[in-house]
Design brief:
mainly alpha, two-stranded antiparallel ribbon, 3 helices, 2 strands, about 5% strand, elongated
Length: about 140
């Protein structure tokens, strides 16, 4: 069972939100240091980190003793690779932050974070409904 108890979608959304938060922090740091001499812009390897945590694309063939057994992937541990961005935006002081590009990335990341949060909210709402209202005749 994954950390959400029984629903892998909730675990995946939780991981996505955690990775989006890490990404937002890196982007914010880049923008905050846009005028810092010698600062090298950083990025997060978001997609591969999400695939790694969720086990998507694993080539390992696990033998299962029962069809109810599922591979366990800990969606709490999020350790994406943070790297220096290679770009052509070098200023004379050695700073590599492209403020306009970073602002665009921040807006995109925020939209994707909000979308994941909304999906998670609706998923939890459906579960709550199923527990409280959807029990059928009593």
């Amino acid at each position: 069972m994954n950390e959400s108890g029984f629903d892998p979608i909730i675990g995946a959304l939780n991981t996505s939100l955690n990775l989006r938060l890490v990404n937002q922090n890196i982007i914010s740091s880049n923008i905050a240091n846009a005028d810092t001499p010698g600062y090298k812009a950083k990025g997060v390897e978001f997609e591969s980190a999400l695939r790694d945590v969720l086990g998507v694309g694993d080539q390992v063939d696990l033998e299962k003793t029962d069809v109810k057994h599922k591979a366990h992937h800990d969606t709490q541990e999020v350790n994406p690779e943070i790297y220096e961005l290679l770009n052509d935006s070098w200023s004379l002081d050695g700073n590599t932050v492209d403020r306009a590009l970073e602002m665009g990335k921040m807006a995109e990341n925020q939209i994707l974070y909000d979308a994941s949060a909304e999906i998670l909210k609706r998923k939890i709402g459906m579960l709550k409904y199923a527990i409280t209202e959807g029990g059928g005749n009593r």
